[in-house]
Amino acid sequence: MNATRLQLPLPVLLALLAAIGPLSIDMYLPAMSAMAGSLASDIHHIELSVSTFLLGFALGQITGGPLSDRLGRRPVIFIGLGLFGLASLALTYVSSLDGLLFLRGLQAIGGGLAVVNSTAIVRDHFEGADIARVLSMVAMIMMAAPLLAPMLGSLVLTFSGWRDIFGILSGYAFLLIGILVWQLPESHPPHRRIKRSPWAGYATVLRHRTARRYILMLASAYSGMFVFITASPYLYLEHFGQSEQVFPWLFGANVIVIMLMNRLNIYLLKFWSPRRLLTLGIVMQFSSALALLALALSPFFVLPVVLPLLMIYVGSLGLITANTMGSVMQHFREVAGSATALMGVIQFSGGALAGLLWGHFHDHTPIPMMEVSLLTATLALIFLLMARRADSHEVSDSPAIETDTATETATATD
Question: Which SUPFAM superfamilies match (predicted)?
Fold first, then answer.
């Protein structure tokens, strides 16, 4: 029986797990206006629940990473999914803004506990450039979640109320528990688990100068996407006057570009190193952010011009994310959970802060959104230059990294 049992590919299983994050954020974006009316609040205060979720997600990851290094991946995944499912169910009964923010925080902690293990599991199984390749596959499959989530949210609003969106998220979590119990084996066996303090893994990662700078670069680049997610309801629904039915298509356009970039990344990794590809992604993000701010300060800030630039700005993460994670994770095996958690907590904390920064300066014009987007892209470019400089001065412990660096040096004059 075991020989004929259906076994889903590992990238599919990890994509189903990682989809918890984008589903939780993107599915309820079209419902924000309805939620504001139902909870006697305004849409700006409802938007704070995005930052609340990002902070809770970061807290879940910073706890779940070292715990999975010590206890194994599966127990932490199932605890996190259980908490996420129960909090999502409770959100179907919420009656106040404070209750919404509190339960979104609990929901996010559970999601962070579970999702932090997806990248760690890839590191458990793969080495070198294969890490970036598999992570790109996971991301490409997972991108179906942010592509479909706003559409599904709009569909729920058409036939029911916004509370049912959280009911669907609860059902997804418990269904996923059943699938993973059946399909996902433990990838971090007892002989690899750390016996010292579960927080010691963070010190190991933070002491690595090159990895530290790449993590800050990734966090800065990712923060720009979270600014877009937080501000997109205002930009599309209010500033450009688009309907709730059109919003998912505008939002989904950016997701499609990320999917295409991930597919392109898988192909280009046959010829280029992960570091060279993430450099291309950072340059694309910075250039599009600069153009968007220039447009926002001009009379030419119109949807047909802005949308393609936003697609490039957000889509560049298809070249940045997997290659950065691959470059960082190949340094760490026994503490892969801690390394993943540190990347996640800095990404989501930075995203939450960037979203709050936009909210603070929001003046009902697109200018603050574009200013914060350019700020995060500029920081990403600075940290990239610092990381590349550290690369050139640091002798790596990994032969794969030395070869990769040598390849980049040899091709730099191409």
Answer: MFS general substrate transporter
Per-residue pLDDT reduced to its tens digit, 359-406? 888 888 999 999 999 999 999 999 999 998 877 766 444 444 333 444
Instruction: Look up the CATH number of the domain holding residue 388.
Output: 1.20.1250.20
Determine how many CB atoms are found less than 10 A away from the CB of residue 119.
Answer: 29
Q: How far apart are CA 6 and CA 252, in angstroms?
A: 32
The tens digit of pLDDT for each residue in 125-184 reads 877 677 878 888 887 777 777 778 888 888 898 888 999 999 999 999 999 999 999 888
Instruction: Report whether 213 contacts 390 (CB < 8 A).
Output: yes
Q: What pLDDT does 31 receive?
A: 87
Give the orientation angle of helix 399-411 with respect to helix 274-296, to 10 degrees.
60
Number of domains in the chain: 1
Helix, strand, or coil here: 192?
Answer: helix
Token readout for 283 is: 């340059």
Domain assignment present for 387: yes
Question: Does residue 164 sit within a domain?
Answer: yes
Rounded Cα–Cα distance for residues 244 and 236 (Å): 9
- Predicted TM-score of the model (pTM): 0.71
Which one-letter amino acid corresponds to residue 314? V
Q: Is 363 exposed, middle or buried (0-12, 13-18, 19+ CB in 10 A)?
A: exposed
Query: Which residues constitute the domain of residue 26?
Result: 8-186+196-406
Q: Please tell me the distance from the alpha carbon of residue 120 to that of residue 112, in angstroms, as a whole number.
A: 13
Q: Tell me, what DSSP letter sits at residue 366?
A: S
Tokens of 96: 């106040």
Tokens in use for 365?
A: 């014009």
Nearest 5°: the CA angle 393, 394, 396 is 145
Give the total residue count for the chain.
414
User: How far apart (Å, rounded) are the C-alpha atoms in residues 381 and 19?
Assistant: 28
Q: Helices marked H in 126-162 — which ranges?
A: 129-142, 144-159
Give the angle subtended at the CA of 265 by the CAs of 264 and 271, to the nearest 5°: 100
Structure tokens at 319: 């070249």
- Alpha-carbon separation of residue 258 from 9, 54, 255, 276, 318 (angstroms): 21, 20, 5, 18, 5
